[in-house]
Write a structure and sequence with these properties.
Length: about 525
């Protein structure tokens, strides 16, 4: 997670839109063909992330003295909300924190673990939540664990021994230590990160692309020799500052890691600092462009290999983050964004992008799970679900199976960055005879009447509708106040056709059986 300030390119929106519907309502068409498959939607697109940062773990996930916590110190209400979010992949321990985290500090009896000065976020780390606590928590949440190793101040041996401690069945010093600490069987952790944001000068142990590539390659070799079944995520570009060629970092890193890494990690945070709704809504267009560019770099790196390896994109940090940026970057109460409806709509467009690139994007982790730029927010007595919780929950529970390429004919608008942003942003999933279509209406003020047509099948029964909306784009949730949430109803379709009008500033999921 980048801690330095980042400027967001924001400008004027509001070019004339095409009016094709009745009574001045802009019209659109969406065609669905279940044979136009983009790729398999990996459930790991619906992952999340916990870091030793602010109140994410200490005071969020983990609060030992709270009456709301279980005997392990885990907040029961937070765990329940995480389960209902269907978190598929949980990344830990960071983030910037991982670049100075020595995992042996976080094992053994809690009262005997050393407290350390934590230099990423300016606190003291108690180490009371470590490897055993994380892996137990991931299991309780039903999430696949993803551990990010320390390739900042850490060593190759440290990374290798962490894999050995977690995954080996052999009788070694590391496995004896694991058993001594109460875990007889290995966890068999599959996903391992080769450091975090190593391209950023804000990172402890920051290296050049060549230095990182060489260093990470040796760690990767040792880790895969310890357990050939692990999947390794290389630290791709995270520094998109002005004048920085982020593509050069990715190209150089893949020169070294293309035969050992299984994923290339990319990060992206967006914001609305200029209060420009249209420009804010267009951020997923930039996300699409970065995915396509990164896919091209991967294809070039793997060209000529026989047989060719598969290497995918892991978008393992992403979210809206801008209010809680800037000077307040250290201590316990930091990075606590309070999200509104427009933030939830941007989250839904990002999820649409991941589904629309399901052939190459196989991992995504929203940053983070609780309190710190998070869908879940707590105090010492309760929690509430932020606006961004609801689109993520709907996607994770329903957008599975095969991603479909949709034909979308929508009115468009101009921004400072893009000439033609479609007001309707959409994705679709096809699974076990059901189609799920996710649509964001980016128009702030007008509904968009839409004609749906199924190319190769027809509707078989009512269409379930789940809508995330609110009275205005700045509507927020809070303790005791849920203004933005999911509202469900159903509509009727006839044969191959469905007419539906998407309200302004809304995210809608349509789910139907096809015959």
């Amino acid at each position: 997670m980048k801690i330095s300030r980042r400027s967001f390119a924001l400008g004027m929106a509001g070019a004339p839109y095409i009016l094709r519907g009745q009574q001045g309502t802009p019209g659109a068409r969406i065609k669905i063909d279940t044979e136009r498959v983009i790729g398999d939607i990996d459930p790991l697109l619906y992952g999340n992330f916990i870091e030793h940062l602010g109140r994410c773990i200490d005071g969020g996930v983990f609060e030992e003295k709270s009456p709301l916590s279980d005997s392990n110190g885990f907040r029961r209400d937070v765990l329940d909300a995480a389960k209902k979010l269907n978190v598929s992949l949980l990344r830990w321990p960071g983030g910037n924190f991982s670049s100075n985290y020595h995992w042996m500090d976080g094992i053994g009896p809690r009262d005997q673990r050393p407290a350390r000065l934590e230099m990423a976020w300016g606190t003291v780390e108690s180490n009371r939540f470590g490897t055993h606590e994380f892996l137990n928590y991931a299991g309780m949440a039903g999430a696949e664990p993803y551990i990010c190793t320390n390739l900042g101040t850490g060593t190759w041996n440290e990374a290798q021994q962490w894999v050995e401690y977690c995954n080996s069945s052999e009788d070694t010093a590391m496995t004896r230590l694991r058993k001594q600490n109460g875990r007889a069987d290995p966890w068999k952790v599959k996903y391992w990160g080769l450091g975090n944001e190593m391209d950023g000068p804000w990172q402890m142990g920051h290296r050049s692309a060549e230095e990182y590539g060489k260093f990470a390659l040796e760690a990767a070799k040792l880790m895969k020799w310890t357990d050939p079944n692990v999947k390794l995520i290389a630290a791709g570009a995270s520094n998109f500052g002005p004048g920085i060629d982020w593509t050069a970092w990715n190209r150089t890193v893949l020169e070294y890691l293309k035969n050992h890494a299984d994923f290339l990690a990319i990060h992206m945070y967006v914001g609305n600092t200029d209060n420009n709704f249209g420009e804010f809504m267009a951020n997923s267009v930039e996300l699409d462009a970065r995915i396509k560019t990164t896919e091209g770099i991967i294809d070039a790196a793997l060209a000529g290999q026989q047989p060719r390896r598969r290497l995918y994109i892991a978008w393992d940090e992403w979210n809206v983050w801008y209010r809680a940026r800037g000077n307040q970057q250290r201590g316990r109460r930091i990075l606590e964004e309070h999200y509104n409806l427009e933030d939830a709509l941007v989250v839904a467009t990002f999820l649409n992008s991941f589904v629309n690139h399901a052939h190459i994007v196989k991992i995504a982790n929203m940053a983070q799970l609780v309190n710190v730029i998070a869908p879940i927010f707590t105090n010492d007595k309760a929690l509430f679900l932020q606006t961004i919780y609801y689109p993520l929950q709907l996607f994770a529970a329903n957008s599975r199976g095969k991603a479909l390429e949709l034909f979308v004919d929508s009115p468009r608008y101009k921004t400072a960055r893009f000439d033609g942003v479609p007001y309707l942003d959409a994705s679709a999933a096809w699974d076990n005879g059901s189609v799920v279509v996710n649509v964001v209406n980016r128009h702030r003020d007008q509904a968009i009447q839409t004609e749906f047509e199924i190319e190769d099948k027809q509707f078989a029964g009512p269409v379930a509708v789940s809508e995330v909306n609110g009275p205005d784009i700045k509507a927020e949730n809070d303790f005791g106040k849920t203004t933005v949430k999911t509202v469900e109803r159903s509509v009727t379709a006839e044969g191959k056709k469905l007419r539906y009008t998407f309200p302004p500033h809304s995210y809608t999921m349509l789910k139907a059986k096809l015959a």
